[in-house]
């Protein structure tokens, strides 16, 4: 069971792309979830930074394995300072939600973007994500109608000023 698994944080790798796509399909069904190739392209880009959350699953019958349970990515925009940043995605396995994993990954992205303004888009009906972002100082700066093409759902554009 996932209840007592230790979660460790580190770098997302290209070997994680298939698992990311699997989680995307669960988390963003109906909103054009990213396929494996999208994650591979993101991970190959030098201006994009990803973090991973892995649950260490141990059992007496098998050696410990680290299961990817969360991922989050941010892109640096522009070529000269002061940079701006855009959070591209944050996803946490539904079985692991509510444990602070998303919060820890967002904090890591914001640390990476230290000194720069950070933007993101979030579905207007995703109250949990909006509350998380607001707790980090993000404010709603606009509405993007039908931002999610597949479902037609709207998104807020949120911004966090440099700290």
UniProtKB/TrEMBL annotation:
Keywords: Acyltransferase, Ribonucleoprotein, Ribosomal protein, Transferase
GO cellular component: ribosome
Gene3D superfamilies according to UniProt: 3.40.630.30
Highest taxon of the lineage: Bacteria
First-tier enzyme category under EC: transferase
Entry EC no(s): 2.3.1.266
GO molecular function: protein-N-terminal-alanine acetyltransferase activity
Coiled coil (residue ranges): none
Domain N-acetyltransferase: 7-163
Protein name listed in UniProt: Ribosomal protein S18-alanine N-acetyltransferase
Organism listed in the record: Mycobacterium deserti
């Amino acid at each position: 069971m996932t209840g007592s698994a230790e979660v460790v944080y580190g770098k997302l790798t290209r070997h994680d792309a298939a698992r990311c796509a699997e989680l995307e399909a669960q988390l963003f069904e109906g909103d054009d979830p990213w396929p494996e190739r999208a994650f591979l392209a993101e991970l190959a880009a030098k201006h994009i930074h990803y973090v991973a959350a892995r649950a260490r699953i141990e059992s007496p019958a098998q050696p410990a394995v680290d299961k990817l349970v969360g991922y989050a990515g941010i892109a640096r925009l522009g070529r000269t300072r002061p940079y701006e940043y855009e959070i591209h995605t944050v996803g946490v396995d539904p079985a692991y939600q509510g444990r602070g994993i998303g919060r820890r990954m967002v904090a890591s992205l914001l640390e990476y973007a230290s000194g720069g303004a950070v933007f993101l888009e979030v579905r207007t009906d995703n109250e949990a994500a909006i509350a998380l972002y607001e707790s980090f100082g993000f404010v709603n700066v606009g509405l993007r109608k039908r931002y999610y093409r597949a479902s037609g759902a709207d998104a807020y554009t949120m911004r966090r000023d440099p700290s």
